[in-house]
Amino acid sequence: MHTPHNAHVKRLLAALIILFVIGFFAKQAFQPKSFGKYGHYRADAIMEEANRPMRLMTNPSCVKCHPYEAGHQMTGLHKTISCEFCHGAYADHIKDGKKIGTLPVKRNAEITTLCLRCHNRAIEARPKQVIKTVVMPDHLRAQKVDEKHSCNQCHYVHAPLKYINHSKKIMGLI
Amino acid sequence: MSAAHDTVASLANYVFPNDLHVHWSLMIVLYPYITGIVAGAFIVSSLYHVFGVKQLKPIARFSLLFALAFLACATFPLLNHLGHPERNMNMMLTPSPTSAMAGFGYIYSLYGMLLILEILFIYRPTMVALKAKSSGFMRGLYTILTFGSDNVGPKSLALDHKIISFLAAIGIPMACVLHGYVGFIFGGIKANPLWSTPLMPVIFLLSACVSGISGIILAYIIIKTFKKEPIDFECVQTCLNYLAGFFIIDFVFEMLEIFSHGYLRTEHWHMVDGLLWGNLYNTFWVGQVYMFSVIPMFLLGWVCLTRVHDQVLKVVASVISVLLLLQVIFMRWNVVIGGQLMSKSGRGYTDFIPQWFEKEGILVALIIMICPLIILYILSKIFPFWLEGEKTA
């Protein structure tokens, strides 16, 4: 079979043209419909993000049913901390005004791990004048308590210095 | 947990919480490494096809396939790093003309097409001959790859030659753009004192040539040795001469960049200084500079300036290639990881220790680096690296 000397180049060019045409139509077909309406992004994405169900509902939502804990928390050193920061998301607990699950309660060593998320001196970026940081177990040794103690055995977690200061007052230390 | 603990323990001074974690990990080290090998291998081929360096003829075709095998895997690290590989075509569907990162989609695609076309044209006479000898699937494959044309007459080959020269000629700036662009991505990040320099694309491009040529020399010697075929030492010697040239300029630029920062005491020099003599001391000074630059520099000087026995050349060329391949990957590491170890606070450093078994760990990196070699093996079954006549030459 004899083929012209430039047959392969012509076929190649034809294949490339077909490829570009397919690419052009694929772009038209698959480009999201709302793309470019406001800018170089999909306009529908705004409403999709806005319509996401909320998971975190902030402290006033918790206070309604937990006034006792909130009373301590709002008068103590942790007053600026969100309940959900330690307890988990509201959405895992309440849905449409009804309880759907119990948020996990941290105990013993877990409590210490939780506290050290903020109060660990190894995290050098913490501003020391704002958050009291400690080195474990040096802090327990300095306080002359068992090294196995978890933080909440001395500190009431919702108001960390409340009972410590109270007992110091009774003993006349402050 | 233990890795996180180590990281916290190894923090130095004041590190912003969002600088704690190194986001661009091993995968981003591999990505410029692989594209660098592609660009370097293509330049070896262009030296023969465009600049007429006849001594490189034995590896001119092989280096194109070598480049294609690595190009096919260049996106693997990125797809793994970003997650959602199914979204990769969005870059083409909604192109962003002002995004340097999005530019990769076009540069990569155009360069890939160019490379494939050049290989098809160069291999056309070979494939026409192979098609006549083969049957079944391979015959069908060769028919598609030759675009159904058996014409290998002088007129047809002359046309092919013109097209090959054209493709190779526009391929050089494209190879430079492909890799210069990768350097540009880093050089364009002005918040990072280690990256933000207009020299970055130049350094990346030169180190790309070094890794590409080293890769070609090493692969050529290994394949020829295993196949018990004679090695063309004139070709290896020529490659080493070019390698020496590229490497000297590359190494000088790498050092100049550091020294000029140091001499000028630029704004963030105290951070770069602390980094190079602190966390990066082993990988930069001991690895990249002393072991994998100074030693190969002396070896290159020896084999390029004096005449050595062929068998000695074979061993020394392999050693130089391995050392320089390591030099380039250490350089990528020091740039990519090193740049992220400095906190934007300008006062503290974090640390990065790669893990073996994680999404972007050492094992995955090794698997990604093996993929091009598997693809190269498959390509060798379709496009023979060396012609029958060359084996005995």
SSE order and pairing:
The complex is a heterodimer of chains A (174) and B (393).
Chain A: H1 7-30, H2 44-50, H3 59-63, H4 67-75, H5 83-87, E1 94-95, E2 98-99, H6 109-119, H7 138-142, H8 162-170
Antiparallel strand pairs in A: 1-2
Chain B: H1 2-9, E1 12-14, H2 26-49, H3 57-73, H4 76-82, H5 90-93, H6 103-133, H7 136-145, H8 154-187, H9 199-226, H10 233-264, H11 269-276, H12 281-305, H13 310-341, E2 347-349, H14 362-382, H15 388-392
Antiparallel strand pairs in B: 1-2
Helix pairs in contact in B: 2-3, 2-4, 2-8, 2-9, 2-13, 3-6, 3-14, 6-7, 6-8, 8-9, 9-10, 9-13, 10-12, 10-13, 12-13
Q: Any idea what the CATH architecture of chain B is?
A: Up-down Bundle
What is Rg of chain B? 22 Å
The first-to-last residue Cα distance of chain B is 60 Å
Order of helices and strands of chain B: HEHHHHHHHHHHHHEHH
Q: What does this molecule look like?
A:
The complex is a heterodimer of chains A (about 170) and B (about 400). Chain A is an all-alpha fold and about 170 residues long. Chain A folds into 2 domains: about 50-105; about 105-175, no CATH class. In chain A, about 45% of the residues lie in helices and about 0% in strands. Chain A has 8 helices and 2 strands, in the order H-H-H-H-H-E-E-H-H-H. Chain A has a two-stranded antiparallel ribbon. Mean pLDDT of chain B is about 90; it is low at about 1-5. In chain B, about 40% of the residues are buried. A two-stranded antiparallel sheet of chain B has the order 1-2. Helices cover about 75% and strands about 0% of the residues of chain B. The termini of chain B are far apart. Chain B has 15 helices and 2 strands. In chain B, helix 2 packs antiparallel against helix 3 (about 55-75). Chain B has one domain (about 1-390): Formate dehydrogenase/DMSO reductase fold, CATH 1.20.1630. With about 400 residues, chain B is an all-alpha fold. The interface between A and B is medium-sized, with 25 and 30 residues.
